[in-house]
Each structure stands twice: as C-alpha cells, then as structure tokens.
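Weekly structure sync, notes
Attendees: PL (lead), two postdocs, one rotation student
Agenda item 3: pending single-chain targets
PL asked that the sequence for the first pending target be pasted directly into the notes so everyone works from the same version. It is reproduced below exactly as submitted, 261 residues in total.
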Amino acid sequence: MKHSCDSVHFQWWKRSFGVAALCLGLLCILLLAGIIGMCVNYTGQRYRDERDQLQTSNNNLTKERDQLQTSYNNLTKERDQLQTSYNNLTKERDQLQTSYNNLTKERDQLQTSYNNLIKERDQHQRETEKLKIKGNVALNGVATQSSLYNNRDASDAIDGKKNTHYGSCTHTLKDRNPWWRVDLLNVYRITDVTLTNRGDCCPERLDGAEIRIGNSLENNGTNNPRCAVISHIPAGETHTFQCNEMEGRYVVVVIPGRSEW
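Predicted structure, written out during the meeting:
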C-alpha cells in the first residue's frame, strides 16, 4: 500500500512539473513574442520617425530647391536686364563718342575758319590802310591809251607837271571811242579824280568824256562803273570830280560814241 502512495505522489509531482515547465515555456514564448513585438513596434516607430524626418527634409529641400530655382531665374533675368542696360549704355557711349568726335572736328573746322577770317580781316585792314593813302596815287601808276599821236606818251598825263600846253599833255589819234587809262598797281578807294584840260587849244574835245573806275580790263576798262561825266572843262583849267570812295585799280577816261582826238 505504501508503495502505491509513493508512486501516486511521484506521478502527481511529475505531472505538476510538466505543467509548470509547459507554463514556463509558454510564458517564455509570450515574453519573447512581447519582446519581439516591442522591438518590432520600436523599430517601426523609429523607421516611421526617420521616414517622417526624411520626408520633411525632402519637402524642405524641395522648397529650398524651388526657392533657389526662383532666385536663379530672378538673377538670370536681372543679369539679362543688366546686360541689356550695359549694351544700351555702351551704344549710347559710342554714340556720344561719335558726337564728341564730330563736334571736335566741327570745332576744329570752325577754329580754322575763324583763324582764316581773322587773317583775312587783318589783311583787309592792311589793304584798307593802303586804300586810305592820301595824295595823287596816279603819279606812281602805269598809263596807256587807245593810240599815240606824234610820239606823245600816255604817261604825260601823270608826270606831275603843271604846264597845260600840248607838249605836256597826252594826245591820241582820232579814234572811235578813244580812251586813256592808268593802272594804280593796287586797289584803292578813290575819293576824287582831278583832270586838267589842254590850255593852248581845243578844250571842247574833252566834252562828254566819262571817268570810270574798277578792277576790270574788259573792253580796255571802259566797262567799269562810272564816277562822273565831264560836261566841259575850260582850256587850261583843272576840275575835280568826286567819286565817293569808289574802289578800283584802274581809272579810265573815255569819250564814248564819237571819234575824237
């Protein structure tokens, strides 16, 4: 009987130990599953957090990229505008340089013209001073006439002698439109012309004669402007004719429209 009880007790203990071991195993399995679950949950949460951080970083980077792209586009646009402004300024500078060069050239031309005008003015003033010479400028001139009578000379009229007889006067042949001319060798402003008629004969031969003054030798100088018409100078007398500062190199006395000595 005793042997049976011990056997029953052993069997019960043996069965209890198996249940405990089973429970312990199940508990270990549950703990392991919990630990694994916790690890999986922790790892998943960490991955989700990292994913969210990466997504946020990606979004931020995308936003920064877009901002940088916008800034780049704006800078490119500003660069193009600056380049256009630079090109326009360069073009304006070149135009201004061209205008400056043209103005400088015109200034130099005007300066040259001014200098030439000053030179001409000074020369004109010098010539004017010459023109203002007082006295009988015909005395130094060169005389000529349409013809010579009896070997007389045209210079007899400007030799300065006061004798009015034939031997001291100029004389032509009986020419048609006879003329006498003196070359003053320079241009003068002639205030008056003084003529002395022959005193020993024929004072009427000079009637109607014209005094002409100018710079032309066309038609022997008789086409120059007229200073005066001689109506009559009595024999041996001297008359002065006002010419109001007519300008000319040649003084001509012509008897137009008839043949005369």
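Discussion points:
- Residues 137-260 form a domain with the Jelly Rolls fold (CATH 2.60.120.260).
- Strands lie at 142-145, 175-176, 179-196, 210-214, 226-229, 238-254, 259-260.
Action: rotation student to compare against the earlier draft before next sync.
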